[in-house]
């Protein structure tokens, strides 16, 4: 304990405590000793219990004088007599001042300041006089050291040092030799307290006297640290003391200690971790045993505890709770990954293992000399090339070679091997637990077709007369007349009930579109021929309706200053009026479609061109034309007016856009996920839209639900050419190049929470394929559950 205290005091020697009063008070004069006549001297002050204060205030000099004091005590004990201690005579000082004799009760080898330090006479607690006295004692420590080190006993010459001085100098030299600064500096006495508690205070703790230890006035920032790093060569060995807030520079010994610890070595250099071990027990047989204790009785009596354990284990073996160990299997633990996986194999016992799918074995088609029935004909070869890669039954064409030597290298070998590797390690495989369910329960519960009647079921009439394929047809609002356009350059008007051709109007070009005006009080047919739209008055039906139509067209008064329009309105000549032609609207570009608004005054036209003028809207009453779009969005295929709202639906190749005509803004954009949209139809209620595509898909959109398809129907095998809704019944039909018309039941409920019911009810066939074309247009009767179809075989058919 004394050695530890001595080392700790030595570590304080290099930093003598700096009193705040010393800087301006100057050196304090030595304190006067008590008079020799007073043998007892003044009464000593109460000694403080904190010995740490004596170590800090005394510094290293006080401890160097401790050895001198011990020598003086020995001398006093050797030469003193019982009773009062005789006073020593005064000795001259080296500086000329008279030597002061120590008072009674003090050691002759100590000066006044040293004695006050060791006796605890300093006090920094209450008043300033005591603090000043402490400062004076501290300042006089160095001078008293010289006096105490140079005093000589009586009768000794000045040049001969006294034995006491020699002992003190020896102790002083030994102290510096054995000096060590490894002890921790504990000036901050806050103890084991988190220093984060002092973040909001100007100090970091308290010293031994209870005074605050203030933080540095200015905390160095990153710029100061960088400059210090550049300027200070010892920056790398400077660390910050968190207890005091100051920077401490490590010595070479401390740096070496840190490096040894970083390398995982011991801190003490002289420590040898590999010293030879000394065995306590010798390997040789000795005469005397280590212990001569007699053996216990339990060493040769059977243990009852072990007997009970053995009986329990025997009972467990009898009951079958403990099974004997199985002999180890000597077979190797590796296995063939690609071997046949049987249930007893390692992978077969793994429950979650899913074997990779096996490649199909080659058949006769892969042979270099296949049978003749496997070789494709020229038509089959062309059909195989026109199909999509994923739709082909075989990804190659069988060929015949005279010998195996003549077979060339397979061009898709590397691609197929790469796809096989992708299938092996990229395609996820999942084991699905098979549930015993009735296959009939997996089929959705659809109503029977007989419960969804009426709908067309059979062919009733065939309208013959066109010399070429019939591209379009339209039914009058009353359902009595039927108009059709063909590639033979004529428009024919038919009576629906009798299939009789009432009138034939030659137009001199391929008819792309025919549309009957939906107003019952107007008898007018729009015919799209080449780059013009012809307005015909067929003069069928009520004479009053025919006369009012001519009056409506002739009542127009042209404006004084005609405005520039994208189309030209021309009156028909007398010869054309005899045929039934009333107006001609010229566009300068080929017209592909013409459709009427529900009120019959506006008509939308699609032109086969690129740009913003693909769609034009004509107003019949004012004979005005306008282009509603500023820029185009792809090739426009079909347009349709919304039956209830002021919307215009424009179908391009990949999307369907819904425009608000009054606000002149885009409302919705429908994505049918088709390669090429071919046809468009709007439900009479206006909330649902169907689209047909050339990749044999029929897409149903619910405008209130999403812009994605609600249902995609793939009932046709070839491209869809036309789709149509029935204006009254929940029916819609689609015509395809496979020569069939599929009629579906499409019930739309008023309840928004109930989805539409889509059920295919009938497949109608009757048209023959011509030039790989089948049904080109379909239309429903306005009042009856009948459907009309126009085919490439030059006929029109009515299914009822």
TrEMBL record:
<feature type="repeat" description="WD">
    <location>
        <begin position="463"/>
        <end position="504"/>
    </location>
</feature>
<keyword id="KW-0690">Ribosome biogenesis</keyword>
<dbReference type="InterPro" id="IPR015943">
    <property type="entry name" value="WD40/YVTN_repeat-like_dom_sf"/>
</dbReference>
<dbReference type="InterPro" id="IPR012953">
    <property type="entry name" value="BOP1_N_dom"/>
</dbReference>
<dbReference type="Pfam" id="PF08145">
    <property type="entry name" value="BOP1NT"/>
</dbReference>
<comment type="subunit">
    <text>Component of the PeBoW complex, composed of BOP1, PES1 and WDR12. Within the PeBoW complex BOP1 interacts directly with PES1 and WDR12. The PeBoW complex also associates with the 66S pre-ribosome.</text>
</comment>
<feature type="repeat" description="WD">
    <location>
        <begin position="713"/>
        <end position="743"/>
    </location>
</feature>
<dbReference type="GO" id="GO:0043021">
    <property type="term" value="F:ribonucleoprotein complex binding"/>
</dbReference>
<feature type="compositionally biased region" description="Basic residues">
    <location>
        <begin position="7"/>
        <end position="24"/>
    </location>
</feature>
<dbReference type="GO" id="GO:0000463">
    <property type="term" value="P:maturation of LSU-rRNA from tricistronic rRNA transcript (SSU-rRNA, 5.8S rRNA, LSU-rRNA)"/>
</dbReference>
<dbReference type="InterPro" id="IPR019775">
    <property type="entry name" value="WD40_repeat_CS"/>
</dbReference>
<protein>
    <recommendedName>
        <fullName>Ribosome biogenesis protein BOP1</fullName>
    </recommendedName>
</protein>
<dbReference type="InterPro" id="IPR036322">
    <property type="entry name" value="WD40_repeat_dom_sf"/>
</dbReference>
<feature type="compositionally biased region" description="Basic residues">
    <location>
        <begin position="48"/>
        <end position="57"/>
    </location>
</feature>
<dbReference type="InterPro" id="IPR001680">
    <property type="entry name" value="WD40_rpt"/>
</dbReference>
<keyword id="KW-0539">Nucleus</keyword>
<dbReference type="GO" id="GO:0000466">
    <property type="term" value="P:maturation of 5.8S rRNA from tricistronic rRNA transcript (SSU-rRNA, 5.8S rRNA, LSU-rRNA)"/>
</dbReference>
<comment type="similarity">
    <text>Belongs to the WD repeat BOP1/ERB1 family.</text>
</comment>
<dbReference type="GO" id="GO:0005654">
    <property type="term" value="C:nucleoplasm"/>
</dbReference>
<feature type="compositionally biased region" description="Low complexity">
    <location>
        <begin position="92"/>
        <end position="111"/>
    </location>
</feature>
<feature type="compositionally biased region" description="Low complexity">
    <location>
        <begin position="119"/>
        <end position="128"/>
    </location>
</feature>
<comment type="subunit">
    <text>Component of the PeBoW complex, composed of BOP1, PES1 and WDR12. The complex is held together by BOP1, which interacts with PES1 via its N-terminal domain and with WDR12 via a high-affinity interaction between the seven-bladed beta-propeller domains of the 2 proteins. The NOP7 complex associates with the 66S pre-ribosome. The PeBoW complex associates with DDX27, BOP1 interacts directly with DDX27.</text>
</comment>
<feature type="compositionally biased region" description="Acidic residues">
    <location>
        <begin position="129"/>
        <end position="142"/>
    </location>
</feature>
<feature type="compositionally biased region" description="Pro residues">
    <location>
        <begin position="27"/>
        <end position="45"/>
    </location>
</feature>
<feature type="region of interest" description="Disordered">
    <location>
        <begin position="1"/>
        <end position="169"/>
    </location>
</feature>
<comment type="function">
    <text>Component of the PeBoW complex, which is required for maturation of 28S and 5.8S ribosomal RNAs and formation of the 60S ribosome.</text>
</comment>
<keyword id="KW-0698">rRNA processing</keyword>
<dbReference type="InterPro" id="IPR028598">
    <property type="entry name" value="BOP1/Erb1"/>
</dbReference>
<feature type="domain" description="BOP1 N-terminal">
    <location>
        <begin position="198"/>
        <end position="456"/>
    </location>
</feature>
<dbReference type="GO" id="GO:0030687">
    <property type="term" value="C:preribosome, large subunit precursor"/>
</dbReference>
<keyword id="KW-0853">WD repeat</keyword>
<dbReference type="GO" id="GO:0070545">
    <property type="term" value="C:PeBoW complex"/>
</dbReference>
<dbReference type="Pfam" id="PF00400">
    <property type="entry name" value="WD40"/>
</dbReference>
<keyword id="KW-0677">Repeat</keyword>
């Amino acid at each position: 304990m004394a050695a530890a205290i001595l080392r700790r005091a030595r570590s304080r020697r290099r930093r003598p405590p700096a009193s705040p009063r010393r800087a301006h008070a100057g050196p304090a004069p030595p304190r006067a000793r008590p008079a020799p006549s007073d043998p007892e001297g003044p009464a000593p002050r109460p000694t403080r219990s904190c010995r740490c204060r004596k170590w800090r205030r005394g510094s290293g000099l006080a401890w160097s004088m401790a050895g001198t004091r011990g020598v003086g005590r020995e001398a006093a004990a050797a030469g003193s007599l019982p009773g009062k201690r005789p006073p020593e005579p005064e000795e001259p000082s080296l500086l000329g001042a008279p030597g002061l004799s120590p008072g009674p009760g003090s050691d002759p080898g100590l000066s006044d300041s040293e004695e006050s330090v060791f006796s605890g006479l300093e006090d920094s607690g209450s008043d300033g006089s005591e603090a000043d006295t402490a400062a004076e004692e501290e300042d006089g420590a160095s001078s008293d050291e010289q006096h105490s080190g140079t005093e000589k006993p009586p009768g000794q010459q000045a040049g001969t040092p006294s034995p006491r001085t020699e002992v003190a100098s020896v102790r002083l030299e030994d102290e510096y030799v054995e000096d060590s600064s490894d002890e921790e500096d504990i000036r901050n006495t806050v103890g084991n307290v988190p220093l984060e508690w002092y973040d909001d205070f100007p100090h970091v703790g308290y010293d031994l006297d209870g005074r605050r230890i203030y933080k540095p006035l200015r905390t160095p920032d990153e710029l100061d640290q960088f400059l210090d790093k550049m300027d200070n060569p010892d920056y790398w060995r400077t660390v910050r003391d968190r207890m005091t807030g100051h920077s401490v520079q490590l010595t070479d010994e401390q740096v070496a200690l840190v490096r040894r610890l970083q390398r995982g070595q011991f801190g003490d250099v002289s420590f040898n971790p590999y010293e030879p071990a000394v065995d306590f027990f010798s390997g040789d047989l000795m005469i005397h045993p280590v212990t001569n204790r007699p053996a216990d009785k339990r060493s040769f009596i059977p243990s009852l505890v072990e007997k009970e354990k053995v009986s329990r284990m025997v009972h467990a073996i009898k009951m079958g709770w403990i099974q004997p160990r199985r002999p180890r299997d000597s077979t190797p633990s590796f296995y063939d990954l690609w071997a046949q996986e049987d249930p007893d194999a390692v992978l077969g016992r793994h429950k979650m293992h899913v074997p990779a799918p096996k490649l199909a074995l080659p058949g006769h088609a892969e042979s270099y000399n296949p049978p003749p029935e496997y070789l494709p004909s020229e038509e089959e070869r062309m059909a195989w090339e026109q199909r999509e890669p994923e739709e082909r039954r075989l990804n190659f064409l069988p060929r015949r070679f005279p010998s195996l030597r003549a077979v060339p290298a397979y061009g898709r070998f590397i691609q197929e091997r790469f796809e096989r590797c992708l299938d092996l390690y990229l395609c996820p495989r999942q084991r699905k637990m098979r549930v015993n369910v009735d296959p009939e329960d997996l089929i959705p519960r659809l109503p029977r077709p007989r419960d969804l009647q009426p709908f067309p079921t059979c062919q009733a009439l065939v309208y013959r007369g066109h010399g070429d394929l019939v591209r379009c047809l339209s039914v009058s609002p009353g359902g009595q007349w039927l108009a059709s356009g063909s590639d033979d350059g004529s428009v024919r008007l038919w009576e629906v009930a009798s299939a009789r051709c009432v009138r034939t109007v030659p137009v001199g070009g391929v008819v792309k579109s025919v549309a009957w005006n939906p107003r019952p009080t107007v008898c007018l047919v729009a015919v799209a021929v080449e780059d013009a739209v012809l307005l015909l008055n067929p003069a069928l039906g009520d004479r009053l309706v025919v006369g009012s139509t001519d009056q409506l067209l002739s009542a127009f008064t042209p404006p004084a200053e005609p405005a520039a329009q994208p189309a030209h309105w021309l009156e028909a000549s007398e010869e054309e009026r005899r045929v039934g032609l009333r107006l001609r609207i010229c566009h300068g570009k080929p017209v592909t479609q013409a459709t009427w608004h529900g009120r019959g005054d506006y008509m939308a036209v699609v032109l086969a061109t690129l740009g913003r003028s693909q769609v034009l809207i004509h107003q019949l009453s004012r004979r005005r034309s306008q282009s509603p779009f500023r820029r185009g969005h792809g090739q426009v295929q079909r347009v349709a007016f919304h039956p209830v709202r002021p919307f215009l639906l424009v179908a391009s190749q990949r999307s369907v856009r819904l425009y608000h005509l009054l606000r002149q803004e885009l409302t919705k954009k429908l994505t049918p996920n088709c390669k090429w949209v071919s046809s468009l139809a709007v439900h009479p209620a206006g909330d649902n839209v169907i689209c047909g595509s050339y990749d044999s898909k029929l897409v149903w959109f619910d405008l209130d639900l999403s812009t994605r398809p609600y249902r995609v129907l793939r009932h046709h095998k070839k491209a869809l050419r036309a789709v149509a809704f029935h204006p009254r019944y929940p029916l819609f039909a689609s015509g395809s190049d496979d020569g069939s018309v599929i009629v579906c039941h499409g019930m739309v409920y008023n309840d928004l929470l109930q989805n539409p019911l889509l059920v295919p009810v009938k497949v109608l066939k009757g048209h023959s394929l011509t030039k790989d074309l089948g049904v080109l247009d379909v239309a429903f009767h306005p009042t009856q559950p009948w459907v009309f179809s126009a085919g490439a075989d030059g006929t029109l058919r009515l299914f009822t």
